[in-house]
Amino acid sequence: HAMGAIVNGMTLHGGLKVFGGAFFVFSDYMKASIRLAAIMRIPSIFVFSHDSIAVGEDGPTHQPVEQLVGLRAIPQLNVIRPADANETLAAWKIAMESKDTPTCIILTRQNVNNYQTTHYEGVSKGAYVASFEKEGKLDGILLASGSEVDLAIQTQSLLIEKGKNVRVVSMPSHYLFEKQTQKYKKSVLPGNIKTLAIEMGSPLSWYKYTQYIYGIDTFGVSAPLEQALMHFGFSKEHVADYFIKKLA
Predict the structure, then answer these.
(1) Which pairing describes strands 103-106 and 78-80: parallel, antiparallel, or unpaired?
(2) Nearest CA among 228, 243, 247 for reference residue 158
(3) What is the pLDDT of residues 18-66, one digit of tens each?
(4) How many CB atoms lie under 10 A from the CB of residue 135?
(5) Which of 164, 89, 151, 156 has the alpha carbon at shortest distance from 122?
(6) How many C-beta neighbours within 10 Å does residue 114 have?
(7) Do the beta carbons of residue 168 and residue 197 sit within 8 Å?
(8) How many CA within 13 A on the CB side of residue 105?
(9) What is the tens place of the pLDDT at every residue in 61-117?
(10) Number of C-beta neighbours around residue 96 at 10 A
């Protein structure tokens, strides 16, 4: 809490772009300061790492589940969860250029692939197509943020092999996406296409976009990364099977 208050105080003083950083699960201790930054409309920057159950052996006390929902619910707060290095650079650019909106940048611990299709323009609009479907009828959309975009693209390849033509949409910022025109939002998420949201956390903030959510509604487990992911079924095989059973 003290760190968040100091970030706000230095930001109010002016002359500096100020940020503080911590494990994401401990954003709970900073919630009052983050909320005040949003109320005051000041461009404080809060950076959080270790953003999911993929933290691993530290166990449930250090594995965020409900934190993303809580931060996304704060008015006038831009929560950005980038998928790779390209989106992370974009998140920083957006945060640094902000004049009256605080930004939370939510980062993963584990390694992820970098994609040529991820870019600043897409992040600046909150969501965009990170991997297009093949030619022909669109069978579905995989919607994800953060490290799960990597998982979604892997799942897309598997589903295409199984005859399901899907696209992958990266949504790093719900806040920015909601500011776009209806025309743009429909171009990314048509609304009449079955959509599966994928996020290693509480599903509650995704229901405005789809009724199908592959998330977590329990606390995490103390286990190595791969075991924790398998425990919750976050593999391309599990997600593809879920899509075929529930949406196809």
Answers:
(1) parallel
(2) 243
(3) 999 999 999 999 999 999 999 999 999 999 999 999 987 888 999 999 9
(4) 6
(5) 89
(6) 13
(7) no
(8) 24
(9) 999 999 999 999 999 999 999 999 999 999 999 999 999 999 999 999 999 999 999
(10) 12
Cα 117–chain centre separation? 17
Six token digits for residue 87: 């989106």
Show the tokens assigned to 190.
């048509």
Is 210:197 a contact under the CB 8 Å cutoff? yes
> Is the pTM higher than 0.85?
yes
Measured distance CA(185)–CA(205) in Å, rounded: 17
Closest CA relative to residue 68, chosen from 90, 87, 53, 57: 53
In this prediction, residue 126 carries a pLDDT of 99
103-106 and 19-23: which strand pairing?
Answer: unpaired
CA pair distance 46, 56, nearest whole angstrom: 23
> CA 115, CA 112: separation in Å to the nearest integer?
10
d(CA 53, CA 59): 8
Sketch out the chain's domains with CATH numbers.
2-246 (3.40.50.920)
Please provide residue 225's backbone torsions phi and psi, each rounded to the nearest 5 degrees: -45, -55
The residues, any chain, with a CB within 8 Å of residue 50's CB and separated by 6 or more, are 23, 24, 25, 58, 62, 64, 107, 108, 109
Q: Look-up: residue for tokens 């295409």?
A: 160
Phi-psi domain of 6 (left: phi exceeds 0; alpha: psi -120 through 50; beta: other): alpha
Q: What is the pLDDT of residue 57?
A: 82
